[in-house]
Amino acid sequence: MPFNLSSSESAALVHEPQFVRIAETLREPLRFYLDGREVSALQGDTLLTAVLMQQRRIRESEFSGAPRAGFCLIGACQDCWMRTEDGKRLRACSTLVTEGLRVLTRTGSATGQAEARSGDTQ
What is the pLDDT of residues 52-100, one digit of tens each? Predict the structure, then answer.
């Protein structure tokens, strides 16, 4: 995201896609859950591709809170780790999306911090 955006403009961009699909559009669709909301992907999509087709990041850095969207895209850098709702760690760049998969972009203290900022503590 450009650094000259206000925080409200940056927040609005989070749910805009980072990737745009221009090929292989005829593969079988499937549903998965991203932070509790049902979204779609195509058979054969990696988790990284599927998430970045929905929004601009896959997680927030556990060190700085900055958005992360993968780095090497080949499974070598450790930047694309995500968690399922039950806590299992997945490498987004090499995990294929499956029907009904439930993943989170924020976990642990990051979730609490985000909820506190938004006022949503339920």
Answer: 999 999 888 888 888 888 888 788 888 899 999 999 999 999 999 999 9
46 pLDDT more than 90: yes
pLDDT reported for residue 42: 98
How many angstroms separate the Cα of 58 from the Cα of each of 21, 27, 68, 122?
17, 23, 6, 23
For 81, 98, 103, the CA distances from 42, given in Å and listed in that order, are: 20, 9, 16
Q: For residue 76, what are the contacts with CB-CB under 8 A and spacing of at least 6?
A: none
Backbone φ and ψ of 114, nearest 5°: -65, -40
Question: Whole-angstrom Cα distance, residue 25 to residue 19?
Answer: 13
Domains defined for the chain, CATH in brackets: 12-19+27-118 (3.10.20.440)
75 Cβ contact list (under 8 Å, min separation 6): 91, 93, 94
| Residue 39 near residue 29, CB atoms below 8 Å | no
More confident residue, 67 or 4: 67
